[in-house]
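notes to self, project folder thing:

trying the whole complex as one job this time. last attempt i did each chain seperately and stitching them together was a nightmare. three parts in total, labels are on each line so i dont mix them up again. if this works i'll redo the older ones the same way
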Amino acid sequence: MDFDLADEQSLFKDAIDKLVQKEYGFEQRRRYAAEPEGWSRRVWSQLAEQGFLALPFDEAHGGLGYGPVELMLVNEALGRGLLLEPYLSTVVIAGGALRAGASDEQLALWVPQIAAGELLVSLAYLEKQSRYNLADVATRAELRDGEYRLSGTKIAVLHGDSADRLLVAARTAGARTDEEGISLFMVDADSAGLRRRGYRTQDGLRAADLILSDVAVPAANLVGRIGGGHALLQRASDYAIAALASEAVGCMQAALEMSVDYLKQRQQFGAPISRFQALQHHAADMLVEVEQARSMAMLAALVVDDVDEAERRKTLSAVKVQIGKSGRIVGQLAVQLHGGIGVTEEYAVGHYFKRLTMIESQFGDGEHHLTKIAAAGGFVSVTP
Amino acid sequence: MNFQPDPADQAFREEVRAFLREQLPVDVAARNRRGFHPSKEDELWWTQLLYRRGWSAPHWPVEYGGTGWSPQRRFIFEEECFLAGAPPTCAAGFSLLGPVLYTYGSDDQKARFLEPTRRGEIFWGQLFSEPNAGSDLASLKTTAVRDGDHYVVNGQKTWTTEGHYADWLFCLVRTDSSSKPQRGISFLIIDAKSPGVTIRPIVSIDDAHTLNETFLDNVRVPVANRIGEENAGWSYAKLLLEHERAFSAEVPRNKRLLSQLKHIAALALDGGARLIDDPLFSSRIAEAEIELRALEWLTLRALADMDHGADAGRPVGSVLKVRGSELIQKIGALIVEALGPYGLIAYPELDFETLPGPEAAAGKTADFLYRRAVTIYGGSNEIQRNIIAKGFLGL
Amino acid sequence: MDLRFTDEENAFREEVRSFIRENLPKPVHAKMLEHRALSKDEVVSWQRILNARGWATPSWPAAWGGPGWTAVQRYIFLDELHQFPAPEPVSFNVSMIGPVIGTFGSDEQKARLLPRIANLDDWWCQGFSEPGAGSDLAALSTSAIRHGDHYVVNGTKMWQGMGHRADWMFTLVRTDPAAKKQAGISFLLIDMKSPGLSVQPIITIDGRHEVNSVFLDNVRVPVAQRVYLENKGWDVAKFLLGNERTGIARIGMSKYLIRRAKQIAAQVQDGDRTLAEDAGFRRRCAEIEVELKALEITQMRVLAAMGEHAEKPDPRSSILKIKGVELRQAASELLLRAAGPLALAAEGEYDPPNPEDAPADTEWGSTIAPVYFILRAASIYGGATEVQKNILAQAVLGLPK
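result (full assembly):
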């Protein structure tokens, strides 16, 4: 076990930290949010140029072949900067599903485009009724005349409004909540019969709802085994949880630093409010939570590629629970310590709070994962 | 960064386990796992046994009989011993006094005390807190007045854990009351049999005797028993209090408690069904498990820092103390809740077998009660938060 | 001791409930049910409906034209509004400036202003906080310098709730810079149309515009618009801040939030059943409901004590504020978690809802997260939770300042 950055990892971290620091001041972020797509194509190109979009993909397919630790470093930096770009949706989530299930030919075709920043892909898996159950898929796909026809609706597709392609989960067999019988299809965003409605999300990012009415998809765009899509959704979820964990740590660290600075600078009752012990202890509690969360983000990086599926899933559930809890406490206290300005749009701290809040409801909230861990028997073995 | 565990450490863990399997009698292990306060005989006997294997003072420098293990291995060793139910070794001697002695003691003092301590021949008691010097330890009032080649010590000390076992005591005394509180303190070693030393029990909330108050009435202590320089004792004590911070989360204790919690929840029936099958109760257990998982990782990070010989500026020690102690209390409360009516029974240490209820219930409520102190001792959690806020956040 | 409501009180509750049911305009109720913002007209017309019934000013004695209710009646009235849910009468008017005028105003001020306040003919806002004076309100620095029969006011005020709708602002200004902090403050009424006064919106994290900054640049305010004595404004402010805490726990609001969470949970699928059937969700509801029950009783105890010594604010009302906020925040969190991914879309992004383009009904979900976000402010304004705890420690427990 080694908690220090190797030389190459340090270079890596410096590069992404520098990029975020240079391009993602709070005012700059505001401007990017006002761009047509709600994020910056220019920053996206920079991420591409410096290799960050190619990061987790195999070298054989045109990627850089880095591991979960490097991805952790990147996501933490993205969290600090509250990036608006579709990194999570394209590289982590859709990228994760593709890495888990796409054929070598497909990867060789798509990865270089993703790496170059030319292809945005969003995973469309959520439906109105599905909540946190990845197996709950009502959208149907039928094979007709050598191509698939997809019909159904999808909601909350992250960055689905600017995606060039949508990786859609659709049922090719079985009942609505069966794990078997789900298949993934790469669907062109401009396909006939596909309507998208994009919107801003509570945390300032973008998402879309989709209506698919008999959308034609070539058989070659089936990703993974027919009916075997659930496993790919689970892998995407694994990667998403690990990435959200480190992103949340970045958010929390920034919110903590911001709060400490504010305590030192804000004067009330003739002195900086940092003098008040009640407020100091709030800050100390935040730090305790950030460190616990950081430990779990590291643990996520360790297990995300673990071959023991039960252990991996259970541990990632634990990560999500801790991240949600720490994020809630840190976000709420950061706002509280800032007082009134903490609840304004004008100050960054409220935006960290909002992002942390919305991270909790992606890929299962704390309650959901807690139940899963409990059902799996937890971690500690029973001895009298 | 690479979070894969080291296979050599895994092999070491196996080695420790095998040793424990061979050497630790079943009845001793059972007694310790129940959470009753250990006996002096068990502690010294186990220390002697470890000594023969060369393992009684793992964290001391090799030249003083330490093992030279990495912090990670020391943690593994401690965890395996604790989980197996091995008796503790005298914490006051090994974790508190030892490092002060080998760092600041004279050659003569080292020769007199280090080896016998390591062999399990001396039991130590700590005399720091006073009735009016708790969190504000530097305000201590016990005086030591020089009289030729002796100090004459007068005062009252409190919270002397296992003081009734002690052969020797180490004590903070005021040798100069004219300067700042921290400046006039010296560090003395006192023979517990000296005339004028009276040790009286304090019965704790668990109805047990492990704590004591110690009265020092004109106790004559040779000047040769002062460690380091006169009036410099505070800096030695500070070193001692900051020592081994990475271990302060008590991960092994938390693990044991959790495992016991699950055992009890599997025995307890709630409306005919096992409590552990209740989704609500089991998700509360899971919540504690997740916190422990995060805590264990935080500990591993701290150990890695220690391994580098520096604390790398991370606030880890205080964070570990705060979260680890809170978790002990949280799990303890869940255990008592799971016990239901059996939690009411006060199990006496010796004949709990004749009492009603599952054997697993023995000692649990008492331990829960005693562990209310974990957020108070060793620098209360409020003090730890101050340390975090001032020392690390710069407030 | 009897912790139950009397028959009369229960009958009163029924009367209030049926009045609201019969008179609250349906579109307003629909908006309230989904936590949507109301237009100025909607607020004004509802307050006038209440005023016509004599209920727009629950805390006012009959002498001021109020209903002269007991503390328990006032509590029941607000609780019913919150649970229904219907809008409260505008608190800046009814709970703040009204009682100030009634208590400190000249006879002329009372006769002229009180009826207009009650009927919302004038909408009032509060000009207390400043960028440098939050929890430490007495540190305010907005100055008012006397020139003949006018004050000339300069400074910046912050957090004016609905200031952009207001006709008038009641404000604290410094009239004697040489005096000690609290001693040199006066209480002025300022016309929002005064030359030199400008309002700038502050957008809050729920994306809404409710609060504002108000800039005062050589604003001339007639001396006749001062309430009470010069340099004695702090007494008025203290009265105002300690006044009317019957509804401070907002228990009805928490109840409504939980009710809505349960309604949503009954519609939301969670695995192979609805979320409402999930034991964990039910436990979380129950946890909050238990505490609400306790708070309700605490509230009644404080109200009973108020009936006896009405003149002094009860420091125990800090308990109501602390717990009331905590439970409201917890209930909003419950609501947010119940909605889950359906609460992701930002508010307003779906307006106007077009069934053709909006396949999934995330529209209703978009007003949920903002409730949770903005409720974080509740532990900051009106005496932050930390300040309330200081009050309890010092005023109730006798610990040193």
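what i see at first glance: Chain B has three domains: 7-89, 124-235, 244-392.
need to look closer tmrw
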